[in-house]
């Protein structure tokens, strides 16, 4: 499948099971317009449907930006009624976050601002280059986050820092983002893609049902009470014990060999 504003590569750079998605509007710092959204929805659906792929990476093209936000030029032409009636920004969570059961990593290579920061936070985790910069500068445009920033940033880094960032619009550098638990890891800029591919390949080599189950369990921690989450965890664990890959995984450990996964 070829796209206008993104690229998609299965088994990226020879990494089996790893799909690499790249937002490709470097001249606009990878700003997220309707076409990018439409194409990302399609690419994530294709990734989800492809049984040979088990971990995806989303990054930005060029050296400067992951995504510098929703496309301000496109939004400046819309009236309030358009935003409201189209439920603008709703498909990001509904079509990408909710429908992608397999994991994906945001490899943040530069500016992740506004919708760009919000998109990175939709990923299962973020690996950032030393040059990454995160921010919710919407307040400077007279608006506020609209793709989950006020909610996901607050859950990730806590009220005080999130409030400060949303109210001042300041950018957070990679080192502070790691210290604040916004990102899993910071790596040298030139090594970002190689490191993220390596991490994704590690995940893609795991038993597929266990990968999906682990993602679902961790996400449950954000959706329900501790008691409910613990029940979900136990039930999913119990279901996994019936899988062929559980029998294989435990046998492989005891026999001191690598597991051969069936994905069932
Ligand atoms: N949308 C559209 N185009 C953009 C965007 C964007 N978000 N960000 C950068 N660009 C374009 C610039 O217009 C410029 O294009 P051109 O060469 O045609 O003038 C090109 O990318 C390069 O940008 P700069 O020349 O500005 O590059 P600098 O290195 O000088 O600055 C910055 C980099 C600091 C990242 C700067 O580009 C910037 O501040 N960008 C905007 C960041 C921002 O505010 N993001 C939040 C957007 S709003 C949002 O995501 C949530 C929705 C809010 C609703 C708003 C309703 C009106």
From TrEMBL:
Protein name: Short chain enoyl-CoA hydratase
Matches recorded under SUPFAM superfamilies: ClpP/crotonase
Signal peptide: none
Keywords in alphabetical order: Lyase
GO molecular function, one term: hydro-lyase activity
UniProt keyword Lyase present: yes
Superkingdom: Bacteria
A Pfam family hit: ECH_1
Membership in a protein family: Belongs to the enoyl-CoA hydratase/isomerase family.
InterPro entries in alphabetical order: ClpP/crotonase-like_dom_sf, Enoyl-CoA_hyd/isom_CS, Enoyl-CoA_hydra/iso, Enoyl-CoA_hydra_C
Annotated GO biological process: fatty acid beta-oxidation
UniProt keyword annotation of Cytoplasm present: no
């Amino acid at each position: 499948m070829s796209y206008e504003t993104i690229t998609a590569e299965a088994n990226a750079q020879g990494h089996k099971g790893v799909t690499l998605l790249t937002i490709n509007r470097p001249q606009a710092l990878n700003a997220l317009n309707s076409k990018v959204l439409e194409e990302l929805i399609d690419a994530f659906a294709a990734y989800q449907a492809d049984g040979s792929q088990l971990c995806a990476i989303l990054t930005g093209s060029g050296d400067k930006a992951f995504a510098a936000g929703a496309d301000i030029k496109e939004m400046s032409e819309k009236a309030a009624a358009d935003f409201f009636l189209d439920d603008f920004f709703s498909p990001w969570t509904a079509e990408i976050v909710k429908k992608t059961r397999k994991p994906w990593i945001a490899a943040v290579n530069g500016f992740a601002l506004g919708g760009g920061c919000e998109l990175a936070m939709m990923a299962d985790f973020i690996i950032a280059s030393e040059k990454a910069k995160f921010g919710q500068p919407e307040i400077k445009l007279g608006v506020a986050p609209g793709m989950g920033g006020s909610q996901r940033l607050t859950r990730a880094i806590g009220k005080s820092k999130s409030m400060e960032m949303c109210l001042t619009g300041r950018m957070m550098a990679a080192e502070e983002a790691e210290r604040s638990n916004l990102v899993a890891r910071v790596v040298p800029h030139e090594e970002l893609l190689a490191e993220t591919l390596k991490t994704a390949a590690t995940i893609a080599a795991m038993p597929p049902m266990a990968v999906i189950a682990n993602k679902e369990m961790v996400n449950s921690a954000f959706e329900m009470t501790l008691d409910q989450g613990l029940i979900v965890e136990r039930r999913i664990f119990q279901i996994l014990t019936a899988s062929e890959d559980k029998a294989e995984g435990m046998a492989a450990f005891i026999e001191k060999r690598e597991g051969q996964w069936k994905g069932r």
